[in-house]
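Q: Can I see a sequence and its folded structure?
A: Here is a first one.
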Amino acid sequence: MRLRLRSAWAAALLRTLGVELEADLTHARPGTLVVANHVSWIDILVINAAMPVAFVAKEEVRRWPIIGWLAARNETVFLRRGSRGHARVINQEIAELLARGRHAAVFLEGTTTDGRHLLHFHAALLQPALSAGYPVLPVAISYWELDGRRSLAPRYDGEITLGQCTRAIVGRRRLIARLVTTPLRGLNGEDRRTVAAQSREAIALAAGLPLASNPPETPGGLPGELLSGARPTGSRSRAPADSA
């Protein structure tokens, strides 16, 4: 009941912000470590509205205004970096969540982007799930305008403040958030670096993003410049341009 309420609450907040969720949960199954790209603070709402999860986040997030409050009330597992003893405790917490058929979720980029590219995926946080024999579920998140263009309104990177990000979101008449699950990884004993690389590629393809790892200030080619030209929904239409 608590999980259903959390999902309903997250969906209600998205509607209040004018965000419509389109979720493809074809590959979702209980007891998986969800790995997603990271664009905005509302990624947390998008994932929870589709499939309630317990997030893994750095300890500093607990002190962030509003976001820290939201995280603490969403069963977030706070990771104290640099402490091996604490890391072992966190690993055990994650394994216990997965053993109960729950989802845990991590953003392997470690920070947000503008949504037009992916950063390097850090593999270390995959180890608790892989060591305990639980698979990884790569999930692609992207945001779109009503006219089919990729939206930059939800971006929460660089010097953009929480207030500026929120105003940009509510300033749109409506935004579409697309969440696409991809096939499970780590089912055949692959090491964490392999699973991280496979997850990154799967997310890039599902979100229509370039595979090259670009720093935030120099995003790579957009989907329309790729050979596939595919949109994250699987549509045969040409990938749209971005919208500021």
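Q: Show me another, different protein.
A: A second, unrelated one:
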Amino acid sequence: MGKATRIALGVTAVALACGAGWSQDSTFDFIGVGESMESAAAEENWDSVYVYAAQITAAAGADLTDRSADELYCIGLAHMYLMARAFDIAEEGLQDSRAEFASKMSQMVLNPYEDVRVISHGEQVTLTDYLVPGQTAIFDFSSEYCPPCTGISPYLQRLARDRDDIILVTVDINRPGHEGIDWGSPVARQYDLRRIPAFKIYGPEGELVAEGDQARQMVIRWLQEMEG
């Protein structure tokens, strides 16, 4: 599905949430639709998530009195998903700090505490925004045009998924459409990258514990331990 189509579907879902497609309904099955929404989210079927969320918010209206805790949970979750989608759509027309904020807010809802995620795509990034309390974070600066990067990536992903105490954040240094390793991208210049893959490792308390060769050796040791 193309990006334009996905955006159009998102706009439709947000419009429906404003009451364009459904009217308030006291007989609406909030819990049943909410469970369908959660199942779709678990499968990352976001188009369906937004439609379910729109149905829930439209049926709920503004009056939240006399709702059960489970119903309120579904309503709140639906609003969160639509908020994330609104920020995601808005990001297309925003610049600078607003675009960055919109992206962060969307990711906070759609990708909460993922074991493996990809960020940046060539733009400057604040690594500490992606830390998870109590988790060791490996930041892997990478490019699809770097054979060692693509070679080690599956092992890093497996490490993050096998170990409950580690998350992996891949920092894609390539700007969209740039062929070859994008050494001149904003994020590559921001961290003065001269060789990739490059790693920064943050501890569970949010402190930088290793970078450069030290971080590389830590990652290699963890991978060797994983292979047993």
